[in-house]
Amino acid sequence: MDLLPAADDIALGLVYEALGSVATSEPPELSPDWEIADLGYDSVQILEALTQIEETVGVSLSQQKLIGVRTVGDLADVVRASLAGASETLVG
C-alpha cells in the first residue's frame, strides 16, 4: 500500500506512511486537511504511528506541539519542525 504523496514533502510522506502502516483496513486517500479524529484510528494506533515516525527519523516529537495537532497536515508540521530542530543541532 503506497500512500506517499506525489510532492517531495518528506514530513507529510512520513505521516502518510505511518498512518497507513497502522491502519486495520485499507486507509482512505489521505489529505493534509483531514482531521485525524475523523480517520477512525484509536489511541493505540496513533501512538504506534508516532513511534514509527520517531524511530524512522531518529528524533522525538514535541509532546507540547502534539497536543495541538488536529489534522494530518498539523502532524506533518510537528514532524517538519522536529526535523528542522534536529538539523540545526547537528549544524550548530
Automatic annotation (TrEMBL):
Protein name in UniProt: Carrier domain-containing protein
Cross-referenced Pfam families: PP-binding
Domain of life of the organism encoding this protein: Bacteria
The keyword Transferase appears for this protein: no
Domain spans labelled Carrier: 5-83
Transmembrane intervals: none
Keywords: Phosphopantetheine, Phosphoprotein
